Amino acid sequence: MTQAIDAAETTAAAPRAGRSLWADARRRLVRDKAAVTCFVIICIYVLIAVISPIALADWKDSYNYDNINASPSWRHLLGTDEFGRSVLQKTLLGASTSMTVGFFANIIAVPLGMALGAIAGYYGRRVDELIVWLYTTMASVPGFVLLLALKFAFMGKTAFTGTRLQLDLDGTPGIIIALAVMSWIGTCRLVRAETMKLKELDYVVAARATGRGNLAILFRHIVPNVLHIGIINFSLGFVGAISAEVFLSFLNLGPPDAPSWGKMINAAKMDLVVGRWWEITAAAVAMFIIVLAWNIFGDRLRDALDPKLRNV
Predict the structure, then answer these.
(1) Cα separation values, 65 from 57, 84, 91, 259, Å
(2) Residues in contact with 197: Cβ distance below 8 Å, sequence separation at least 6, in sequence order
(3) pLDDT digits (tens), the chain, 312 positions
(4) 167 DSSP 8-state letter
(5) Is 29 helix (H, G, I), strand (E, B) or coil?
(6) From CA 7, how far away is CA 126, in angstroms rounded?
(7) Global confidence as pTM
């Protein structure tokens, strides 16, 4: 009997098997109903962004002047616009524009910020001073002012002229580049600070003592341990990119040929006076849902990937 009690106490006192940061984060997210719900909503928007440009390729030519500004009905669930085109289809295509801008802007900005932050934090000295001066100078300019300046700089221009690859910088590529140029600063700051702490830890010092090169240490020991910062900033950066794209489109500085929630709000801003609420409501609600979902999911992801909360 005594031996059984001792064995039970030993088992109870035994430490729980360790989990990696990623396994623990996945467990936390799966158990969080709000995070799962928001992730499902984000996946639905991603599917809409991928499918709608293909399924609704002829939307621009779907004029119906006999059905202009029609109120919602079974035929047109969200009514029609001033050209008789379906507002529902317009909203779905606007989701494609916003999600495309958000994805590609962050896929450029986050790796750029992580690379510059890791280099600045690891090498220090002149390299660090140069990179800190660069992002400090850019951060001193208000975000929207810098975004507008970059967008105006790209207006009417085409990159890689004379080659097979030509980018219309006056359209979606210009917005993506402008957002990427101004969005890497926050990631760079966080990664730089974390790298300065990591490079003094024992395993990095040991790797340096064994003769491992600086690039090998960066890619093998530093970058994997700051990767969670990039993932968190990627998710949170979506909100800023979507909001910026809507803002630019509202000012008629967005993609000229692509439907956008900002254009919808701008075109329908006076419709409320005469009782036509469906277009501006569709754009506002669609934007509200995805921004709220990204905000909640980004917060939950940040909590799940915080090493300080792993044992909670």
Answers:
(1) 20, 5, 20, 19
(2) none
(3) 444 444 444 444 433 445 666 677 778 888 888 889 999 999 999 999 999 888 877 777 666 667 777 777 787 778 777 777 888 888 888 888 889 888 999 999 999 999 999 898 888 888 888 998 988 888 887 777 777 777 777 665 665 555 555 666 667 777 888 888 888 888 899 999 888 888 888 888 888 888 777 788 888 888 888 888 888 888 888 888 888 888 888 888 777 777 888 888 888 877 777 777 888 888 899 999 999 999 898 888 888 776 555 554
(4) E
(5) helix
(6) 60
(7) 0.79
100/53 Cα distance (integer angstroms): 11
For 152, the token pair is 């105006």
| Domains of the chain from N-terminus onward | 21-58+77-309 (1.10.3720.10)
Planar angle of CA 278, 283, 289, nearest 5 degrees: 120
> Could you identify the residue written with the tokens 């030509």?
166
The one-letter code for the residue type at 305 is L
Q: How far is CA 174 from the centre of its chain?
A: 17
CA distance 160 to 150: 18
**DSSP label at 59?**
G
